[in-house]
Design a protein that fits this description.
The protein is built from 8 helices and 20 strands. By secondary structure, it is of the alpha/beta class. The strands form 4 sheets. The chain has a 6-stranded parallel β-sheet, with helices on both faces. The chain has a 5-stranded mixed β-sheet with strand order 6-7-4-5-13, with no helix packed on it. A 5-stranded antiparallel β-sheet has the order 16-12-11-19-20, with no helix packed on it. Helix 2 packs across helix 8, helix 4 runs parallel beside helix 8 and helix 6 packs parallel to helix 7. The longest helix is centred in the first third of the chain and has 17 residues. The chain is elongated, with a radius of gyration of 23 Å. The chain starts with 7 loop residues before the first helix and ends in an 8-residue tail after the last strand.
Length: 397
């Protein structure tokens, strides 16, 4: 069973004064400029500013989210009603830290992000999975127990079972295996592909930045430890002191968002706004009797189109403004008569975690629905508008 920190000295929170913080951020910025292989290691502390509590902050923490989950359990206590906590992690908006890391990865500065978090915010923020190692799983990801195919969901894929089975099955025709969530519970082995990726980059790294981790959980914490043991630069950003305090080149005592905002200013790199990213695939084919056309609408991972992504709660099909079909579960597959010469509107209804509006696809008639079509939908929650584009980086202003 997981616990909070047992050492009272390790529970104390520290804050660098402004001069000391500025000096440390100057060192960090210069180290990144000099680095050939820069990696970042994140813990729950990077998500507390989004309203998601961490695990090991003390009972007297300054965090608005309140004490860590394990700390509360150790004290047989419950979270205060005054705590600023989001009631649904799917509604959490990626923080300044999440978005700063995305921009560093897009520019090729950040070579790998190793994360202990399973809240899905790194992927949601736009981090390319090629450069991400999620050591403890992702609440939105499930994997086939037979063929290892991945499936992303815009909902919590974990069923809370010890055997991890979700009740869903692989949709590959030659498989049909049972799906399992990807969450790693205490005492379970870390996913081989992810831990191999993490340590491969730890061996290459000349600089590692830790953000918001107590570094008490192994083997995950052995990733930054390895960088330090190799004599390379290790910067640790955390309010509490960690077991790697003495090994670190520099310990920065400040909030993760404060660290990343100051760092990006020194690098003269703007932090981009967060945009909801969706990829939609449409397949249109004739049925065997040639009397109907069959339309399949799927969500796909924005960065890895071979991975299915459950994006839609409901899809409505209308002709001349009248509803002819409503589908409330996957697969979103429907047929329309080839004799139908009327206009066709397809309304995509999302899960609405960020109050996303529905998106409507309009076609003059059945013949104008492409045989194959794939496009991106980008949603800016601040202005409440979708943008449809075929370019993966054509984000709305």
């Amino acid at each position: 069973m997981a616990h909070g920190l047992s050492d009272n000295e390790m529970k104390k929170e520290y804050f660098d004064d402004q001069q000391k913080l500025d000096d440390k951020l100057d060192q960090l910025a210069q180290s990144i400029k000099d680095s050939k292989h820069f990696i970042v290691f994140t813990g729950a502390g990077v998500s507390t500013s989004t309203g998601i509590p961490d695990f090991r902050s003390s009972m007297d923490t300054v965090l608005p989210t309140g004490p860590g989950a394990w700390e509360l359990r150790d004290h047989n206590s419950s979270r205060s009603k005054k705590a600023v906590v989001i009631n649904d992690m799917h509604k959490a908006i990626p923080s300044l830290t999440h978005m700063a890391l995305v921009e560093l990865q897009r520019r090729g500065i950040l070579k790998c992000l190793v994360s202990q978090n399973c809240d899905g915010l790194h992927l949601r923020s736009g981090m390319n999975p090629k450069y991400l190692a999620e050591l403890h799983g992702n609440m939105n990801l499930e994997t086939c127990s037979t063929c290892n195919a991945n499936y992303l969901r815009d909902y919590d894929a974990a069923a809370g079972r010890l055997d991890h089975f979700t009740g869903r099955r692989c949709d590959k025709p030659d498989c049909g295996g049972y799906l399992k969530d990807s969450i790693i519970n205490f005492g379970e082995n870390l996913p081989e592909e992810e831990i191999t990726k993490a340590f491969t980059h730890a061996e290459k790294a000349d600089l590692c930045l830790v953000l918001g981790s107590s570094l008490t959980v192994t083997p995950a914490a052995d990733v930054p430890r390895r960088v330090g043991k190799r004599g390379k630069k290790l910067f640790i950003g955390n309010l509490q002191r960690t077991p790697l305090y003495s090994l670190a080149t520099v310990n920065i005592h400040a909030f993760s968002d404060t660290i990343m905002q100051g760092l990006m200013e020194r690098l003269e790199i703007p932090i981009p706004p967060w945009i909801v990213r969706r990829r939609v695939r449409i397949t249109h084919q004739h049925t065997s009797d040639s009397k109907n056309d069959e339309i399949l609408i799927e969500g796909r991972d924005p960065d890895k189109p071979d991975i299915p992504f459950s994006l839609f709660k409901t899809i409505q099909i209308k002709s001349e403004g009248k509803e002819i079909k409503q589908i409330n579960r996957e697969p979103f597959l429907f047929q329309i008569s080839t004799k139908n010469t009327k206009s066709i509107d397809i309304q995509l209804h999302f899960f609405g975690h960020y109050n996303e509006l529905s998106f409507e696809l309009k076609y003059t008639d059945i013949k104008h629905i492409p045989l194959e079509d794939e496009f991106f939908l980008f949603y800016n929650p601040l202005i409440g508008q979708w943008k449809k584009t075929t370019k993966s980086d054509d984000y709305p202003l």
